[in-house]
Known about the structure:
Strand content: under 5%
Number of domains: 1
Number of strands: 0
Largest sheet: none
Structural class: mainly alpha
Order of helices and strands: HHHHH
Amino acid sequence: MQSRKQEDLTFSINSLDITLGLVGGLSGIIWAIMELVAGGYESFTFENSMIGSIYPTSPQDFDLDTGSTDEKKAKRAMMRTVAERGKYFYNYGEFVLFSLLRSYCCCFTKGEKCQNRIKRLERHEEASEKLMDELDVVKLVYVNRIG
């Protein structure tokens, strides 16, 4: 005689909404993590490109004396300003690093290089504030494209 062993497994789900809540909760956590990782970078690059296309930028370190009347130096400075206009770019890594250093570790920002980078950070933040204050950005982009 052969014996057969039979096992019956039964599963019961108490409620469908509990199961969907668990799955939805996990996906919500994943989306929140993705937003933290990629959301800041995405908005930063958007602001960076808008600032570069709307607001004119020029070099900050002119070698010209204010009292100098040398025409060649003035032309060179003007051509340099025109050539470097619109090449605005600010690095996201530098933005995050110096935002944190300025906020939490101000004792590490005493050097000249750090002060220059903090000035760039402040310049970027000022341009971002100006961009947010604009009421008609679409008109500015349209005028910029035509001009």
